[in-house]
Design goal:
The chain is an alpha+beta fold and 715 residues long. The chain has 3 domains: 3-292, Distorted Sandwich (Beta-galactosidase, Chain A, domain 5), CATH 2.70.98.60; 295-601, Aldolase class I (TIM Barrel, Alpha-Beta Barrel), CATH 3.20.20; 605-713, Sandwich (Immunoglobulin-like), CATH 2.60.40.1180. The protein is globular and about 75 Å long. The structure holds (2R,3S,4R,5S)-2-(hydroxymethyl)piperidine-3,4,5-triol (DGJ).
Length: 715
Amino acid sequence: MTISEFTDGPHRLDSSSDTVVLEFKHGRIPEIVHWGTRLPDDVDLVHLVRAMETPVPHGLLDTGEALSLLPQLGSGFTGHPAVQVQRGNSDTITNFGLTEYHADRSQIAFTLTDTDLAATLHLKLSLDQRTSVLTSQISMTNTGADGLQLDWLAGLTLPTEFADLLHFNGRWALEFQQLRHYLASGQLTKENRTGRTSHHSPPFLIAGEKGFAEHHGAVIALHLAWSGNHRIIAERLRDGRIQLQAGVLLAPGEISLKRGESWHSPAVHVARGERGLNDVSRKFHAFVRQKIVPAGIYSKPRPVHFNTWEAVYFEHDVEKLKQLADLAADVGVERFVLDDGWFKGRIHDKAGLGDWEVDRNKYPDGLAPLIRHVIARGMEFGLWVEPEMVNSDSDLMRAHPDWILGIHGRNQPLGRAQYILDLTRPEVFETIFQQLDALLRQYPISYLKWDANRDVSHGFSAGRPASFAQTQALYRLLDRVRDAYPEVEIEACASGGARADYAMLSRAERIWTSDCNDPYDRQMIQRGFSIFFPPEVMGCHIGPRRAHTTGREASTAFRAYTAFFGHMGIEANLLSLSAQERAQVAAIIREHKRWRDHLSHAQILRLEHDDSAICGFVAIDQQVALVSVAHLGSSPYPLLAPLRIPGLKGGNWSVHQLNASPGALSRAKYTPPVSRGEAVIMPAPVLCERGLPLPVMAAGEVAIFVLKHMDAAND
Ligand code: DGJ
């Protein structure tokens, strides 16, 4: 529909549960005036928009400040603008207006034009019918003769009335730590300049009603699907309103559009919920399952992994690896992943990256004997690679010292003794692809663990900033590998969990959540991760008894039941585990296999408990619920309050503790029936309102409960 064909008027987007109402004023940029529970079809939108009109207080410009989908200087907006460009080396005022739109009930596409500037924006909003996740995509085109420098273009600007913010902090081996911030005034700006999705500032932001929690409070949550530099802003405007913006962080001069050229921002995905964080997680998990993660993931159960990293590091010995493979197969592993250390010159982390050929000192007959052994034991074979990186001690770097990102002739610091290859150069891209292709052609490799262990601190190519182009080149490389080898699954990893985002996840079946395999920390890392990601994509490993990243000891049960609730694996030297420990690991893996399909479709609810040492969650469907209660610290009282389980279907549920063991949980003089492993019957309202009684637990213990609806229990 062109502008001449529509008069002022609102438009609505509807999904199964939500309605978004957008207001149009002739030629002006649309505003979201309402986003909430689905409205009846017969609501009079014109009337509604009138009812929602905002006053213009004294002290502001006469027209007020439109908090539209593109707040901009030209309309007198004094907050952070959604678009900033330079024409002819100077900042300028943008004044885009609506010139065209196309809409139906689930999506709306706008053309916004600034004739004086000679630039056009295309903005599309789609409300996913089934999951109610709203996706925004925006691009800018230069229609003028001179270059147009783009400094900032928010992938989405969203008004919100919520000032209670939740964002993530983190570091290597401690990702997804939740932080709260009340936005009384000014901005909370989260920037990532590491060129990877980042440990410390992943591209997620949640704003909610004051005091929102897992099960209560209205919440809006957004994610920029991008694996490079970004900026996320929450800003309290001077008039009290709040805007959220998320977009790619561009270096000055990084994007300069010639006439007719366009720049596309990555998508922003947003979900809202009336009933707390679990409500938005429900929507995001469904969205990931239906729209993001490669669909093949659901064609087979997630295979249990053995990963060699913490078992052998760089000391690869074929015979030892075969022994590990034997033990791995015995405990139920289905995929053996050969981590770092297998390729030419890789005796430590200072050499070899860039030379993706098998190290003949470690593997005189290549990888074939090991792979044959692994496959003969009924397992798939996976291989670790770090294709974007190069060590100066490598044949590739010796031959092509100029193939790295950076400014030619200027020194740059190393990160883990490595540089980043400039994948924006076709010859570099092609060389790396050919090396991966040769490996995948030569060997029956079913899985690549794709790692990236340094920040893109010097994102320059041919003298110009190129971080954005490098991230795009990474996607092209992944896409090319996937197209050539569609049956090969990929894991996204960057020094643990620094590449957890939906753009990577649309090209990977698994995300390596963290290098921390210590269950004490890992429980909370997984809890944060689970807000935006479902369990089947969350790589979780049973580490050694003494965690390598923290030095803390944890029992086999605690480690194994922590890994149980994601895409499970082992990352420990099985040769140093006792037969009894291996038998326990095998038993818990067997149990996991009974539950993994459930985990791949269940809704995950993070449970709340008064005692901050308790970390509880449930994987729930209509018939069955699997509850995990981990005790992470010391509690002030011996008796733990019951754990309330919301979300259960009405009726009676049979409840039993899966891992009840008088030995492990003998911390009481009297242990009630459920903690002794007996099944009890509990009505849903009791479980929801009073809660599931917990055993006496000490730090480092975990209790797993199975709840079956009596309809199912009687099957
Ligand atoms: C970082 C990853 O997170 C680890 O799991 C491991 O693959 C190492 N890199 C190998 O260098």
